[in-house]
């Protein structure tokens, strides 16, 4: 099979590798589409401590082409279109037993990140991949592979929002109008929230409004914290979702909260540094600052239902689809600061 093998940061080569064989409880998936995540971009730039060689790509979807002997044919069949839950959770620890399998500590110690004996990575930038049957979720045949490639990023946003008890008519601020910010907007509008987006690029603000946001403010033109307060009768937002990595913007997101509000740190912070927080304000006004990372199994399942049933159409935040043989152009596009989601295509659809 062909795979995009990263030998070192910035050095990705189209490489011929053996096609993997599924174990008894696994299936072999012919990958059809795989999205490029911000983390893939960081890997490409060397902003990580993972081992090489490495094959990135965790936002993948495809078709079952072979099944292990122990896979239940009542649940899965050859020719079925599927996505796979990509967290290597142990199913045994306290985190897994309490529905927090997305932060299972075993995952951080898996070959996804460090493999001294071979290739690390999620391996979605390849023609084939094996996956355990109990990690699969099937799509209807008519669902577009490009939409299916949005399952994992949408599931991350679903998990983020599921961690907040949002009520009809509440004011919610989304900081950042990139792919993940606008996926939050789509979901929050359907939750009945009044959504305010803070985003410096006019094209993204315009798209946020088209997707149902109540207001889209330019943080370069005026103080975004004050603008959020003006739009919420001086209160601030009941919930704030920070989808930007810059530490100073994270501080702004916290300051946007209303009394008894919640600020969700959806994005990781780069550079990784501490930020000043007025703890007295958290105490006095019962404010909450929390985080969300990766999807739970439930969030992954819900993302499939949202896309498969046409409740969420992620294509407004699709930048483009590139053939895997033009991977460099795909990565160059994904590296641009103004881009949306880039998808790599494998084979003919």
Task: Explain what the structure shows.
- Helix 5 crosses helix 6 (179-190) and helix 5 (151-162) crosses helix 11.
- The model has no long low-confidence stretch (mean pLDDT 97).
- The protein is α/β, with parallel strands linked by helices.
- The strands form 3 sheets. Strands 3, 4, 5, 6, 7, 14 and 15 form a 7-stranded mixed beta sheet that branches.
- The protein is built from 12 helices and 15 strands.
- 28% of the residues lie in helices and 25% in strands.
Order of helices and strands: EEEHEEHHEEHHEHEHEHEHEHEHEHE
**Poorly predicted runs of 5 or more residues:** none
Q: CA-to-CA gap between the ends?
A: 18 Å
Name the shape in a single word: globular
Task: State the helical fraction.
Answer: 25-40%
Gyration radius, to the nearest Å? 20 Å
Q: Supply the number of helical segments.
A: 12
* CATH fold node name of the largest domain: Quinone Oxidoreductase, Chain A, domain 1
Please write the CATH class name of the largest domain: Alpha Beta
Oligomer kind: single chain
